[in-house]
Specification:
Layout lengths: L2 H12 L4 H33 L3 H26 L1
Helix pairs in contact: 2-3
Protein name: High-affinity nickel-transport protein
Organism: Alteribacillus bidgolensis
Keywords: Membrane, Transmembrane, Transmembrane helix
């Protein structure tokens, strides 16, 4: 929901009025989103695998991740209204 707005602001701030430059900027923006999402997924998976060796760390790590996820979802739901 926020990404199109960010892209419009970045394009406007850069003064891009050329279609080729705008498409290049869009492509780079999407590639950046994909790379960051993939890296976050890899790092979280690695963390969970390492934490599963130690049960207490695994429970703490899972709880913090769950609380963060629920909090973020609730915040986004409240923001919509």
């Amino acid at each position: 929901m926020e990404s199109p707005t960010q892209l419009a602001i970045i394009t406007n701030a850069a003064g891009v009025h050329n279609m080729t430059a705008a498409l290049l900027q869009l492509t780079l923006f999407v590639i950046g989103l994909l790379i960051s999402t993939i890296l976050i997924t890899i790092l979280l998976s690695w963390g969970f695998l390492k934490a599963s060796i130690k049960k207490k760390v695994y429970i703490i790590f899972g709880s913090v991740t769950g609380i963060y996820s629920i909090s973020l979802g609730a915040w986004m739901a409240v923001e919509l209204f």
